[in-house]
Amino acid sequence: MTSVLKNDGESKMYIIKVKTDREMGSEGFVTRFLHDWYYHENELMRPEMYGMGEPIRYKIEERGIEAAIKAWLKNKMPVMLKRKSSPKFEVDMSWRPQRGLDPRLFPWDCIIWLNYKAGNKLAIEMFKFIITNLEPAFGYLTNEEDYKEKHYVEYKDRTGTTQKYIGREPGGKCLPHDVSATLPGIYWVTYFGTWAISEIGKSKFKNLNVHCIEDYQTGYLVTLYKDSSIIGTQEAKDIERDVINKLGREKFFDKSLVNLDELFKDQFK
């Protein structure tokens, strides 16, 4: 999974991310998923390029979507996707046939960097498309500034200053040098799948003071406020705090409570 946020300098970006344990290697799934995306009824949703890594250079129009399907199946790992036309986006997914010793409850993910020119409506449409196909336990839609503010840290070790993203894994602490809580946080639009709802308790969603709670697939799609322009403002933070308090503060990661010296102490030696 790429750890550095994509930004071409033209505009800020939406970040769409979901965490799942869905099987993503069968020919039926891969064929349906890539066909549905490439031939989506909304042309602005359609990827134009694919690759097995950076640079994403193969044009689907020239090679055909079947070539992308074959690449995924042959390599037993998802292809990366990209759209160069406006609105630009890039997609990175993780999956492998066996999870091995991976301790995470939901080891597979999909992250999309979507240019802000796409607008809120398209961003939500793409989020819903990913939810429908990947059946996530948890997911969110925000912007890169908010993503960084909630999960990015810098600390000094024996080699100098190190940068890292922490607290992003649903299910609690499961990776070295991470302090994930049950859930990574609350964002502009947050998806709570069946697992996340069971962890919180369905009744706690009844009295949230938010813009919208939508029954979607097998979970809840919670939109805190109508417009993404509010992300990062004091108003947004007050709403987030209220929602977290009502759902259970102990369930959510909070970067401000992390003691970095203690977390990374063995790397200072």
Which properties best describe this structure?
single chain; ten-stranded antiparallel β-sheet; 28% helix; alpha+beta; 269 residues
Describe the structure.
The chain has 269 residues and is of the alpha+beta class. It has a domain at 13-25 and 95-262. It is built from eight helices and twelve strands. It has helices at 27-38, 60-63, 65-75, 119-134, 144-151, 194-200, 234-247, 260-263, and strands at 13-20, 49-51, 58-59, 80-83, 89-94, 108-115, 138-143, 152-157, 160-165, 189-192, 212-216, 219-223. Strands 3-2-4-5-6-1-7-10-12-11 form a ten-stranded antiparallel β-sheet. Strands 8-9 form a two-stranded antiparallel ribbon. Strand 2 and strand 3 (58-59) form a beta hairpin. Helix 1 packs antiparallel against helix 3. It is globular, with a radius of gyration of 19 Å. The two termini are 28 Å apart. The model is unreliable at 1-5 (pLDDT under 50).
Helix content: 25-40%
Run of helices and strands: EHEEHHEEEHEHEEEHEEHH
Assembly form of the protein: single chain
Give start-end ranges of low-pLDDT stretches.
Answer: 1-5
- The mean pLDDT is 91
**How far apart lie the N and C ends?**
28 Å
Counting DSSP E segments of at least 2 residues, the number of strands comes to 12
- Based on secondary structure, the structural category is alpha+beta
Task: Summarize this structure briefly.
The chain has 269 residues and is α+β, with helices and mostly antiparallel strands.
Topology diagram in text:
Elements: E1 13-20, H1 27-38, E2 49-51, E3 58-59, H2 60-63, H3 65-75, E4 80-83, E5 89-94, E6 108-115, H4 119-134, E7 138-143, H5 144-151, E8 152-157, E9 160-165, E10 189-192, H6 194-200, E11 212-216, E12 219-223, H7 234-247, H8 260-263
Antiparallel strand pairs: 1-6, 1-7, 2-3, 2-4, 4-5, 5-6, 7-10, 8-9, 10-12, 11-12
Helix pairs in contact: 1-3
